[in-house]
Design a protein that fits this description.
Length: 232
């Protein structure tokens, strides 16, 4: 993309992706802000699933947006804008993983992408939730995120796109440059591994359900003993 003459105009939120991309190419920064807000959640979740670090994921998405901003003029619409942006994020994440691998002198566990990898540049609580319910949701989300981080990268990324972002098999396949059959099998395997991992935690937690020892035990004993003392 050539150097843009930056402009700021009011941009209708219902503008379709093709029109939005055209405005961005013309230097409309308001259109680019709308584009980012439209896809921020999906792209962050994709980056987070690959990098397993919130700060790294944010940086990767920011770098991806900058690369996309400079290259959006090359976008031809063969795939959706969301898919194109997702591929930019995937490539940014892969570059980070490769740099990390070189630093650690190891090979990444799973290689994402395919031969055309370089073709592309570079949960909120319900309003009615009580504080207790919001806390439970946050704790459950933390458990699930931890379990997701334990999955191999290839399975983790497919699961996030299919189950969290609710992309179709076809959209996920195009985003990750994978055969649809591979997406289906990895998604099934990811769900199975998550269920197994969560079930193990539940088995361990069952032993601690309605925990009794400690303060509760002392309190009951003390109250009963007090009632057994002879009245003067």
């Amino acid at each position: 993309m050539k150097t843009m003459n930056l402009q700021t105009h009011s941009v209708p939120k219902e503008l379709d992706d093709a029109s939005l991309a055209s405005r961005v190419c013309a230097g409309d920064t308001a259109a680019f802000e709308l584009l980012m807000r439209r896809y921020n959640q999906r792209l962050y979740r994709l980056a987070r699933s690959m990098l397993r670090d919130a700060a790294d994921a944010e940086e990767a998405v920011q770098d991806a947006y900058l690369a996309a901003y400079q290259s959006l003029g090359a976008f031809r619409g063969e795939a959706s804008l969301a898919t194109w942006l997702s591929r930019v994020v995937v490539n940014q994440c892969l570059a980070r993983l490769r740099r990390q691998a070189r630093r650690d002198n190891i090979v990444p566990m799973v290689a994402m992408g395919g031969p055309d990898e370089q073709e592309v540049p570079g949960m909120p609580a319900d309003d009615k939730d009580t504080p207790d319910r919001a806390l439970v949701r946050a704790e459950l989300r933390a458990v699930l995120e931890r379990k997701l981080d334990e999955l191999p990268e290839a399975f983790r990324t497919v699961f996030v796109l299919r189950s969290v972002e609710e992309l179709t098999v076809e959209e996920t396949a195009r985003t990750l440059n994978l055969p649809e059959a591979t997406v289906r099998s990895r998604h099934f395997r990811a769900r199975s591994m998550l269920r197994e991992s969560l079930a193990q935690d539940i088995d361990v937690a069952e032993r601690d359900v309605f925990s009794f020892a400690g303060d509760r035990c002392d309190r009951i004993v003390a109250r009963v003993m007090a009632r057994l003392e002879p009245k003067s």
